[in-house]
Amino acid sequence: MRGGGEQPIYKLGILGASNIAGPAVLEPARAVEQVQIAAIANRTRDKAVKLAEAYRIPQVAGSLEELLQMPELDGIYIGLSNELHARWAAAALAAGKHVMVEKPICLNPEEAQQLKAARGAAADGPKLAEGLMVAFHPWQQALKAIADSGQFGPLRRISTRITIPAKDRHAGNYRSVKAKGGGAWTDLGGYWLQFLQTLVGLQPESIEAQSAFDGPEGCDWTFQAALKYKNGVEAECLTSFELPYRASHTLHFAETVLTLPDFFRPIKGFYKIKIRHDLPDNRSTICEFEPMNYYVCQLQAFAEIMSGQRPENLEASWERVQLQSRIMAEAQRRSIYS
Asked: What is the pLDDT of residues 78-111, one digit of tens each?
């Protein structure tokens, strides 16, 4: 780390030359002054070399382990497949590096306990963050403020759909391998849970979930979940790798319906997000945000986490892991008896 004006500049290493590395870190780094990409490593070295050439990354490590031992690196971004997240995050923390792990931070409560132990309790130790990019955009707090204000009466129901059709059924991709945390729910359900966590919390009174588990290797290719809360609020979510594209949240209040259409759009670049009414006679916009890129917001937030300006918020990640696992277990239990 070196000083750059008032802000420190953090040198990051990329662990995994996956497709997500470009949009999630390498491109956003051009817009975040506090971060420099200094090295990359991949189990297949040729892939790391290609990304290094494309993005002018100064060093290509000979192995994943070698990257973690580079003394000049302050932090590590982990973009490996899901089943490797916890293992390599723990290894990076042990090497004294700050870590941002692509979502999900881990696959189950047991891995969460391992990461808790690896992170430790020291406030001045290396920081750990989950790369769940929608969490760092202000639209979530705006919707929470609207709900908390009561201006449209009580919130009654939240309906979410996140459906992204898989090209070639994700052949050759961890999303189609059950042992690697494949399936629509593991890949997409965290976005719903993080939103609910912000808006109404993650302490439902009841859980319902179902899937045919008819994707490759028995992965869930379409997954439905529903939660009911003590105050009467209901929340439902549909995730899928086979239905037409849609990414939307719809909030049903006593006096109106609000929607956030295509909330994934800012992963593709700098785009506006709008919150609008969704009634037959009223589709007016009540809140509009200037064009932002989710991954730029996320990388900026990680720089702030490394510097201590922003909390890691790990308890929220652990809570999501717990509930996401419970919901999956309910769907599996139901499929056995159906």
From this structure: 999 999 999 999 999 999 999 999 999 999 999 9
Beta strands in the chain (DSSP E): 2-4, 7-15, 35-41, 59-60, 75-78, 98-102, 128-131, 155-163, 206-211, 222-228, 234-240, 246-253, 257-260, 271-277, 285-292
Report whether 77 contacts 127 (CB < 8 A): no
* Amino acid type, 75: G
CA distance 168 to 186: 19
Quote the pTM value: 0.96
Residues 75, 99: contact at Cβ < 8 Å?
yes
CA 293, 296, 302, 307 dihedral sign is negative
Rounded to whole angstroms, the Cα distance separating 249 from 26 reads 29
Q: Measuring CA to CA, how many Å separate 68 from each of 29, 38, 100, 103?
A: 20, 12, 13, 20
Residue of 180, 181, 188 lying closest to 164 (CA atoms): 188
What is the predicted pLDDT for the residue at 5?
53
Identity of the residue numbered 185: W
Q: Is 50 exposed, middle or buried (0-12, 13-18, 19+ CB in 10 A)?
A: middle
Burial of 295 (0-12, 13-18, 19+ CB in 10 A): buried
Phi, psi of 59 (to 5 degrees): -130, 145
Phi, then psi, of 68 in degrees rounded to 5: -65, -25
Q: How far apart are CA 80 and CA 16, in angstroms?
A: 5
